[in-house]
Amino acid sequence: MKIDGSVALVTGANRGLGRVFARMLVSRGAAKVYGAARDPAAVTEPGVTPIALDITDAERVAQVAAQCTDVSLLVNNAGVLRYSTFTGAPNLEAARQEMETNYFGTLSMCRAFAPVLAANGGGAIVNMLSVTSFYTNPFDASYGASKAAAWSLTNGVRLELHHQGTLVVAVHAGFIDTDMAALTNAPKVSPESVAQQVFDAVEADQVEVLADERTRTIKAELSRDQELIYPAVQEFWDSAIQGRS
Ligand SMILES: NC(=O)c1ccc[n+]([C@@H]2O[C@H](COP(=O)([O-])OP(=O)(O)OC[C@H]3O[C@@H](n4cnc5c(N)ncnc54)[C@H](OP(=O)(O)O)[C@@H]3O)[C@@H](O)[C@H]2O)c1
Fold first, then answer.
1. Nearest partner of 11 among 41, 43, 44, judged by Cα
2. Cα dist from 128 to 89, 141, 228, 237, 242, whole Å
3. Is the pTM here over 0.90, yes or no?
4. Which pLDDT tens digit goes with each residue over 80-107?
5. Best residue among 15, 75, 143, 153 to mutate for probing ligand 1, ranked by most atoms within 8 Å of CB
6. 180 alpha carbon to ligand 1 midpoint, in Å?
7. How far, in Å, CA of 63 to CA of 53, rounded?
8. What is the pLDDT of residues 28-46, one digit of tens each?
9. CA dihedral (185, 191, 197, 198) positive or negative
């Protein structure tokens, strides 16, 4: 589908990658861009229409879908990362928040907007996933589980909405230079590079974006993950634990 003339809605549009998604949609000629955020006053990009939305609030999600009936491009960008291990976290609070936001929030948005997109000719859904959809890293273990669930969701929604002509794009990335990755000095891809690849993919009817070299390598190694991926992750984690003790 063409970005030019489309009507887009971006979740988490107040900062980070979501803000860049919204800005780029305006610059690529979208006719209207709804910038959804928990605090709509924080959506300040020129040309973007703020809208209040917490994606974990199913009632509000339904209201927004009923209000924004012109949407043809849904960008499920909002997400949360709590840097939480499976067995070392003090309780399930972080894991539940990540699953509620990254999986159930995205699911809720897909369900609410599927009929809207159908009514507008099919359109497209972009789901912002992660390289951690593909493998577990103890540093962000429960986040990875939520992104793996969202990857499965994305593949399923694509199958289910094929008949109505909706393109469903899975976007996987390693570290992106936003607040979420501020704690690490590892190499990061710019949010502008991710957004550009995403909208190029939407225009080219591509179902997957692997946004950086590390993500492309990990995806290519998946069929031999226990041999090619997990030994290095284990070594890194073991040395991190030793460094702490
Ligand atoms: N940065 C990375 O390294 C990286 C890598 C791969 C994938 N991703 C994914 O890319 C997406 C964007 O992340 P980012 O890097 O821009 O992170 P960020 O700078 O932390 O921004 C996260 C955005 O999500 C919003 N959000 C969180 N929970 C929400 C909720 N319940 N309802 C509505 N909005 C909510 C935040 O709103 P508030 O301002 O209200 O908190 C904020 O706008 C996320 O899905 C993330 O998992 C990020």
1. 43
2. 25, 17, 25, 26, 34
3. yes
4. 999 999 999 999 999 999 999 999 999 9
5. 15
6. 7
7. 9
8. 999 999 999 999 999 999 9
9. positive
